Amino acid sequence: MGLPIIQVDAFTNRPFGGNPAAVCVLSEARDEPWMQNVAREMNLSETAFLHPEDSGFRLRWFTPVVEVALCGHATLASAHVLWQDGHLAPEAMAVFHTKSGRLTAQRRGEWIELDFPATPAAPTDPPPGLLEALAVPRPRAVGRSRFDYLVEVDSEDAVRRLAPNFSSLEHVEARGVMVTSRASTAGFDFVSRFFAPQSGINEDPATGSAHCTLGPYWSGKLGKTTLTGYQASARGGVVRVEMRDGRVGLGGQAVTVLRGELL
Questions:
Q1: What pLDDT score was predicted for residue 156?
Q2: CA 238, CA 229: separation in Å to the nearest integer?
Q3: Which residue from 211, 216, 215 is spatially nearest to 237, judged by alpha carbons?
């Protein structure tokens, strides 16, 4: 019998929106080369692998080319699958043991709320080639978080019109680069896009972990502790953000679109 693998669109309430992730729930740990090969085969921005551990689940995330230390949308997708397929009771909290510590997820009606560490960006000079690769000659601000660079631009329109040179951007030493502005679209506080050619993904459609940086940044600028972000990729994604003491609550929805078996 094959090993089930489920594809979920995360940070969206409709199929073919948000960010797709594959989720593979295992009975025990598998070796890293096998997981990397499966992630390469799935060819999505992330494939998540889980197995039971310490009253929760060990969770690891792989792009088609590398393992990453933190991923929001594949965590959201994993929690969705655990409840949907009966691995957890509907009212139970999902507990994940990861390279970024203990993460949790809880159901809030039709939404799932993740508890993640905040990764604020410190102001910094842009590294060589970053602004040229983005074609952003005069950013409002540049910051560096634990994982990524943050670049603020003048307008939502500027975020949406970005067409980076990914070959050049690949040489910037960071997991990825988020470009953001205050939102002009009603119902949202800020917009963003996320580029990660360094990790094998030119543009990530909806990036939960980036909001661990965007949340603190826009909370400070707007004086709000609860915000809603829109990731303006072609697929689009909606992330609710709640600032806590050193943590960030990330709210999103998820939809299962594909179910199969690894043979």
A1: 98
A2: 6
A3: 211
> In the prediction, which pLDDT does 1 show?
73
**pLDDT, tens only, 171-202:** 999 999 999 999 999 999 999 999 999 999 99
CB within 8 A of 119, min separation 6: which ones?
70, 145, 146, 147, 209, 212, 213, 216
Residue listed under structure tokens 């994982």 = 147
* pLDDT above 80: residue 232: yes
> Nearest CA to 240 among 195, 200, 190, 194?
190
Give the right CATH number for 122-243 from 3.40.50.920, 3.20.20.60, 3.10.310.10, 3.40.50.300: 3.10.310.10
**Which residues are tagged catalytic?**
46
Confidence category of residue 210, pLDDT binned at 50, 70, 90: very high
What is the number of H-type helices and E-type strands within the chain?
6, 18
- The one-letter amino acid at 118: A
pLDDT given at position 223: 97
DSSP 63: -
Give pLDDT, residue 87.
97
* Model pTM score: 0.94
Task: Tell the burial category of 140 from Cβ atoms under 10 Å away from its Cβ (0-12, 13-18, 19+).
Answer: middle
Distance, CA of 57 to CA of 42 (rounded, Å): 22
CA distance 162 to 202: 13
3-116+251-262 carries CATH number 3.10.310.10: yes
Does residue 67 contact residue 38 with C-beta atoms inside 8 Å? no
